[in-house]
Amino acid sequence: MFAKSKHSKALLRLLSLLIFFALSQIMCAYTATSDTTQISHYLQLAQKHEAVSIDSVVYYFHKAVTLANSGLHSTTNQKVVKKLLMQLIKAELGLGHTYYEKPDFEKSLQHNSRALESAKKIGDSFYIGESLFNMGEDMLEQCRYNEAMEKYGEAITYYRKVNDETSVFWCYSGMGIVQKNAGNFDDAIECFKKALASAQKRSLKNEEASCYNNIGNVYRRQGNFAKAMEAFQKALDQFIRLKKDLSVSDCLNNIGNLYLDINDPFRALNYYNRSLRIIKDKNDDYRLIGRYKNLADAYTDLKDYDNAVHFLDDAIKLSEKSGNVSYLASCYTQYGKLQMSKGEFLISVAYFKKAESLFQKIDAKAEEAEALFEIASAEQQKGLVNDAILHANEVLKLAMISGALNIELKANKCLAKCYEQRGDAKKAIPYLNRAILLKDSIYSVEKYRTIENIESGFKHNELKTENQILIQNSFLQKQAIRTKNLLAILLGISLILSAALFWMIVNRYQNSKKEAIRLQNLKEQQIEKLNENLKMKERELTSKTIFINQKNQLLERLIRELEQLKKADITVGAVSHLQTELKQELSPNAWKEFEIQFNEVHPDFQNQLLIRFPELSPSERRLCSFLRLDMNTREIVSLTGQTFKSIEVARTRIRKKMSLSREDNLTNFISSI
């Protein structure tokens, strides 16, 4: 009886435990379900506050993360666990994105890494790819290029498992930016072309335009300006159609960079200012860094140092605030150039070295080469030839690795100058020849013409803006000449006063006579140099004015004739008369007038042609005059009435009579006469 009672009690205990376990499981499931509902609510609140308050977004995402982790520790139900992990992934990715936008890339990377761990637990390919891609973006901003490439490559594998071609595009774009920043330009173009193929496969117009913009940037860095301009045009047209203001601003900024590279700072300023207006309207501080730095570059080229320092100081402040090493190093390079132009050798070299160190740290070979070149150039100018040769050789190696032809050209020029200073012409000649080949490759007439032809395809409002800029440039040039004249007068007056003062000092202090004479001679040499530069500028201006006047006279005559035709009935005789007038404009008399004006500007040119090349015919000498004014074939055809073919044949005959090889540039040769 006792044994039976004991057995019954054991059964009751077991039954109680089973009931308790079942009730606890039911309670846990109920609690977990309640948690997932609350987490979903927090995620929704975070999304609602995205446009209102970043702090609120961070708060709600953190609440979701805390609740999800708590739920995972309190339940073993696999369905609930999977749902909680999915919500945890979304919350961590949300925090990563929020910190990326702040920008706080280190915190962003931490949350994206946690999202990756959770995504791997449930084996979700899309969220694994998303976490890896975001980590790649964080590492790119931190200039951790090798790690970024690995993350992008892994992300592509997972995106392709779920057939997400859009995300594959962004991975290839990120890889292209990494390679471009690292100075591996050929690899960067390959990555962007793969991204372009992905975008075109899914008809992603915005992404396609972004690819063209990136490809244009790489070609520009390589020195292939024609291809760069072509890519920028495609990107700009699409961005304008899509009404993507920030992307339009980026594209305008890149075109400005291209014009600065080909030494046209006035046009560059136009594009930079148009880009800056858009960015200021959008309050985008991150993009403002590049815009301010580029404006400083342009103003430095124009020798407007006050504006250059103003914009560069703003760029450095924003760079330090953002923590972007690449931007900060670029600002240091530009600040060094600015100080060098003001004659501050030690300060400029210090900034160049800071920039070179930062670029080396992030493995940006092309930018490191640029900073090293500035050091070599400064040393060469200062007479430190051995140091300059050492640094220039390092630049040459980095430029050849990265494929940056522009930098390679600069390095060869610098080495040629260094050996010339040493008096070692034998060593200087190979570098000089290489520089000439690179210059012909990068800055050929055909490439310039291609750039102009591409730009002429922009819309009517673009052309109208260009015309306004040309007028403004002409005004600025005239103003600059007036300023120089005024400075020359003031300098002359100051010299007279200085001479009188020196005369008084000589009478009183005989011991300072030699020093006074030395200073006076130095001043006179400076005046002579200023006068020579002024005369050269006036001649260039006169040359261009001759042709503008001739064209204006022809147009005015045509307008008057057309006005008369409008008032009377149009007859065959009237048309014939107009044709006769046009032929007269192209007659030898017009050439004689031009010849007189040309000889006034270039008095010895025709005589030199007759002496050096007596076999040239009058028409060939006339063509040489046009080439001396740097006119292209289209302009010559317009002025003479001849065909393109006849002009090209004449050019060939001239080359033959001048014994020029195929590699020699005819226009450059004639300009040297």
Q: Would you give an account of this structure?
A:
By secondary structure, the chain is mainly α. 86% of the residues lie in helices and 0% in strands. The protein contains 30 helices and no strands. It has helices at residues 2-48, 54-74, 78-101, 105-122, 125-141, 145-161, 165-181, 185-201, 205-222, 225-242, 245-261, 265-282, 285-301, 305-322, 325-341, 345-361, 365-382, 385-402, 405-422, 425-442, 445-455, 460-508, 513-567, 572-585, 588-601, 605-612, 618-628, 633-640, 644-657, 666-671. α1 (2-48) runs antiparallel to α2 (54-74), α4 runs antiparallel to α5 (125-141) and α6 (145-161) runs antiparallel to α7. The radius of gyration is 35 Å and the shape is globular. Mean pLDDT is 80; it is low at 1-7, 20-24, 26-32, 444-453 and 456-461.
Main attributes of the structure:
673 residues, mainly alpha, 0% strand, disordered N terminus
